[in-house]
Structures are given as C-alpha cells and as structure tokens.
Amino acid sequence: MKANIILTTCVIVLFAFVVFVLGCFFWIIHKTEQIQLYPLTAIVMEFDYDNDLVTCIDGADNFWSFHGVEDWHMGDFVSMIMSDNGTPTIYDDVILQTEYAGYF
Q1: Which residues contact 101 (CB under 8 A, 6 or more apart)?
Q2: What is 37-103's CATH topology?
Q3: pLDDT tens for residues 39-51?
Q4: φ and ψ at 4, to 5 degrees?
C-alpha cells in the first residue's frame, strides 16, 4: 500500500514537471514569434560626450539614442535595425544595430 502511494506521488510530480516544461517551451516560442524587426532611418541631432550618447530624430519626430559618439557628426544619417519588443507601441522599441547611411 505504501509503495503504491509513493508510486502515485512520483507519477503526479513527474506529470506536473512535464506540463510545466512544455508550458515554458511553448510560451518562449510564442513570445519570440511575436517580436518583429524593422529598419528605421534618422538624422543625428545631438551628442552627450560625458555619457557617450548620440541622439537622433526620425521622420515622425521621435528621438532615439545610442552609444558611440566617436564615429558620428551632426547631420549624419543613421540606419537602425529596430526591435518592436512584441508590442504595438514604439516607445519601448530597442535599437539593435546602427550603421552610417550618409550625410545631409
């Protein structure tokens, strides 16, 4: 009788563990499918040399900042690869990569 209870308990714990792992797996896959990347071009507008921060503005008047002032000049075009973080709003989007795209 005692062995039967232990076996039943082990099966329940194992089943719960498998359900938890599969749930985490499918949640991760679902979350990563929703994140989209998109390109964005902006113009360099301002430098913060103390914090090594470049601030630029895009065509919709949104300001974006990234690190690395040493390679940029005022008026440079910057092409950015952006991540939308899986949300519809742009205010939490993240700059993943920046590239020089010319001078205005």
Answers
A1: 41, 76, 77, 78, 79
A2: OB fold (Dihydrolipoamide Acetyltransferase, E2P) (2.40.50)
A3: 999 999 999 999 9
A4: -65, -40
